Amino acid sequence: MSRLIPFVFLLCFFTTSYSQSEIYELRVYELEFFKPAKVLHDYFQQALIPALNRQGVKPVGAFEELGEALPKKIYLLIPYASMQAYQEVADALENDKQFKLDAKPYAEAPQEEIPFNHIESSFIRSTSGFPNLVKPAENSTVFELRIYESHNEDALRRKVKMFNDSEFSIFEDVGLHTVFFGANISGSQMPCLTYLLAFKDMEEHKEAWSKFGPHPEWQRIIKLDEYANAMNDITRIFLKPLAYSQL
């Protein structure tokens, strides 16, 4: 009987914390060294993103990492109303004649012209505290992608609750502009949550985070036993939008 308790506990969590949630697909294309990526950029800009937009999937984000990190990577952020919507859009693209025509240069490119080694795809479900993607300000040039890992599902539940109950309001107070937030339902770093912040520049980023630690609400909640050991690792990636990004 005791083995049922964690399952029921997490079932209640998912039911209450994820009602009316969105689904985000985060794709990461790892590029080969010194290989031109034009065929891939053209595919995104001229075929995939317009086809997704025709299905009501918008805005679609397209980013690359700031700096000169190798291997280079391209990030696509694709929002869906639900997992069912994702399935319906995938089926629609299979039957979209315009998409197939626009994607032909990419689909028929010889193997040696395909610039990436592999694609990683994660699905992220938004939570009640931040249920919908928010398009950032037009002058946003720096994006910060954060992934918080937890040691088990209950620790993740507690970290998500910490955001839902308090951290989003702190973010708003200090100028940490959230684009999306959610708990991963697939991917390589689970159990984890993922979110994206947008800034005008690195100076705004630095100023906002400098206000976060001393914030009185943050100082209150980090002392609560409920949230102790809710997170054990952070991945932080700085991104910049590509010319055709809709975010």
Automatic annotation (TrEMBL):
<dbReference type="Pfam" id="PF07978">
    <property type="entry name" value="NIPSNAP"/>
</dbReference>
<dbReference type="InterPro" id="IPR011008">
    <property type="entry name" value="Dimeric_a/b-barrel"/>
</dbReference>
<dbReference type="InterPro" id="IPR012577">
    <property type="entry name" value="NIPSNAP"/>
</dbReference>
<feature type="domain" description="NIPSNAP">
    <location>
        <begin position="24"/>
        <end position="100"/>
    </location>
</feature>
<protein>
    <submittedName>
        <fullName>NIPSNAP family protein</fullName>
    </submittedName>
</protein>
<feature type="domain" description="NIPSNAP">
    <location>
        <begin position="143"/>
        <end position="246"/>
    </location>
</feature>
